[in-house]
Specification:
The complex is a heterodimer. By secondary structure, chain A is mainly alpha-helical. Helices cover 73% and strands 0% of the residues of chain A. Chain B has three helices and twelve strands. The chains are: A mainly alpha, B alpha+beta.
């Protein structure tokens, strides 16, 4: 897919995440749309593309974030890499894989960010974050997954008809 | 020969290495110009998105009685804010009166001291517009549209008429990142208005505030107002931080804690004020139990970044 399309699209996603996206009712948290996007594309798109999406999205998010620069880039690129590696074996055509990947992906994403905060000697309230932010966020992201996964799956099917979309 | 798959793997490894390098360069501060340029370029998009969101919100809100209700809520909210501020001022005046009387007695009992009374807070605020928030759920930052070109510096306090918002942690030419007081990495020296008990407010992951390190012997109760103490010089004295909602006191602990409801609604921040210059609190002007220290003359300074 042309990066003339991908880069502006990912920039738009990052801007929406940093400005317009409101907290979800009941959860008080915002859906991690960039994370869900990387996970979903990692499962329906061509192998390895998710890591590139994660890298581009991470750069845009780091610009808008107060956390150390590179934190989101490292976290999202790594998640994209793992998904790209496991795509052909586990994910393709497996209906249970997307929600599990989202749950685990959110855990890994938050753990990666917390680890970077800890390395930077910033206070990271591990237990509190895991209980009050990470677990609800994992649930929220999983609930939001179909809204991202299904359109991306349809899109990937049209863009790459030769791929196996069971 | 390099196969396409190997080529792809090399590119991906390079991406991770670049991400790691960016992280390292940021640590050494060498990434700042690039970061500044990139955020400068992104700013019109951020502002545009924000304006679009506000436009959509306004259109959606124009159905039925919503505008009238919204205006009524705003009017009442303004009234509550005005009364809260008035109440704070009255109590502050009472406290100031008591402090001045105490200082007068102090002066009378120490006639050889040359004492100088001084006002503490001198504000020269700039109005800054919030153009973005931290995209993650783990940190509480905002981005505002004022930067070094407008004289903003790292460490400057940020307020609204309702109370303390946070402080500037990073700046570019026309933008600044503000660490909100509800972020877990933010600490503010604070004082309980009624009893003058001191403590430190810290954010927690839920976006609440907690006042810590209040000595066990000090009285603190639900409804008490928490103000900045001005100690450390990072913030001016007597900015409203919030109101105590719960007190946690255990005999085995050295200190007590309390949760605070901030007076600022951090989810609805649109405009904030940056304090470019203020007179830091001079703690030697506070009433002291023993007449030993002579007060220092006040001085005006630009705040410096502190953790």
């Amino acid at each position: 897919m042309s990066y003339w399309f991908v880069v502006p699209f990912l920039l738009l996603v990052a801007i929406i995440q940093a400005t317009l996206l409101p907290p979800a009712p009941w959860f008080g948290l915002r859906v991690d749309v960039p994370l869900v996007l990387v996970i979903a594309w990692g499962m329906v798109g061509p192998a390895w593309q998710a890591a590139r999406w994660g890298f581009i999205l991470g750069i845009f998010l780091d610009l808008a974030s107060g956390m150390p620069f590179g934190a989101q880039t490292l976290a999202l690129t790594s998640i994209g890499l793992v998904l790209g590696a496991g795509q052909a074996i586990f994910f393709r055509g497996n209906i249970i894989a997307p929600p599990i990947a989202t749950l685990l992906g959110t855990l890994v994403y938050h753990l990666a960010l917390l680890t970077i905060l800890a390395i930077m000697k910033q206070p990271a309230q591990w237990e509190q974050v895991m209980l009050r932010v990470t677990l609800p966020a994992a649930l929220l992201n999983t609930l939001a997954l179909p809204l991202v996964y299904l359109p991306l799956r349809w899109f990937a099917h049209r863009l790459y008809p030769q791929m196996d979309f069971r | 020969m390099i196969t396409p798959n190997r080529n792809r793997t090399i590119i991906l490894v390079l991406l991770v290495v670049i991400a790691f390098l960016a992280f390292l360069l940021q640590l050494t501060g060498q990434l700042a110009p690039l970061q500044d340029l990139a955020l400068e370029l992104m700013q019109p998009f951020l502002r545009g998105a924000r304006d679009t969101g506000e436009g959509v919100e306004n259109v959606a809100g124009s159905f039925g009685d919503v505008p009238a209700l919204r205006a009524e809520i705003k009017r009442l909210q303004n009234q509550v804010n005005a009364l809260t501020i008035q109440g704070v001022r009255v109590r502050e005046l009472e406290n100031e009166n008591a402090t001045l009387r105490q200082q007068l007695r102090y002066k009378q009992t120490n006639p050889d001291f040359d004492l100088l009374g001084a006002a503490v807070v001198e504000r020269q605020p700039d109005r800054a517009r919030v153009i973005g928030r931290d995209p993650s759920n783990l940190a509480w930052y905002i981005i505002v549209d004022q930067g070094s070109a407008q004289g903003v510096k790292v460490g400057m306090p940020v307020v609204t008429p309702e109370g303390l918002v946070g402080r500037v942690t990073a700046i570019g030419t026309n933008w600044a990142k503000v660490l909100l007081i509800i972020d877990p990495s933010s600490s503010v020296n604070a004082v309980v208005q009624s009893t003058r008990a001191t403590g430190v407010t810290q954010g927690d992951v839920n976006g609440n505030l907690i006042i810590k390190y209040v000595p066990q012997g000090e009285a603190i109760k639900t409804g008490d107002l928490i103000l900045t103490s001005g100690m450390g010089g990072s913030f001016p004295k007597r900015l409203v931080v919030g109101q105590v909602t719960d007190v946690f006191k255990r005999d085995i602990e050295l200190f007590q804690e309390a949760t605070i409801k901030p007076t600022v609604d951090f989810t609805r921040l649109e405009f904030v004020l940056i304090l470019k210059k203020f007179t830091p609190a001079d703690i030697t002007l506070e009433p002291t139990p023993t007449p030993t220290a002579a007060p220092r003359p006040t001085r005006t300074l630009t705040p410096t970044p502190t953790q």
